[in-house]
Amino acid sequence: MAHGDSLAMTVEATHRSLEARVAAARAPNPDRPRDTPDAFLAATSRHLAAVEAVLVPRVRKRAPDGDALSVEYLAVARSLEQTLTLVKARLYGEFHAVRLSWPQLWRAVQTQLSEHNRIELRLVDALIRYDEPDSLDGLAQRVFDAETRAPTRPHPHLPHTGKASLVARSLWAVADRFWDRAEGRVIPAPVHPVPHHHDSLLGQYLVGDPHFEADAPFLTHRHHGRLNGGSSTSQENRVVEKFEDPNL
Question: Which range marks the domain in which residue 212 is found?
């Protein structure tokens, strides 16, 4: 496995998991209608927080256009979080969201999630291109570890960068877990990172990375590809108004 493959494969697996969860959330079990939407909200909120904690600072530091790419990602992530907040409010019957239709909300979620995933893959591609190879191999595990400590609810109005973001998200993660237990929410486990291992002995030799582990096969066959497409109340009301646009 080449440097960065573990990160790329883990992020892609997480995207597939989120896409499956949003599909399940759109057709919930009538007997427990909150379970699949809650699972999607928790998994997505947790992943957004982990990307902002681990990948965004790394891209800013390593990639030549890291600042611009990070700003673009954060804008898309914040927009998705705002919509997730409305989904959570609608799910639990909060007054400002009850007039929103479920088809309208889920269409917005699907569109924004797809855009988020596309830009996150650009973050990963930038890291594979510009980060140190030895650093890449541990990033998938760092994202996973960050997800296990992240908030399980969307918090679009928290700071999204810097130490203030880490402190705020750490505090809200504790609060979220308290209310998750109180409300009996379904909180799925994060997607486990794909373990990094070196290529076959022949592959190591050809790429000039001859570690020659004793358990490495002489030749391996892999069929996976690279990244897709890559070598407060007033604020809530304004967001609600956007969803009442008949053109949506």
Answer: 196-225
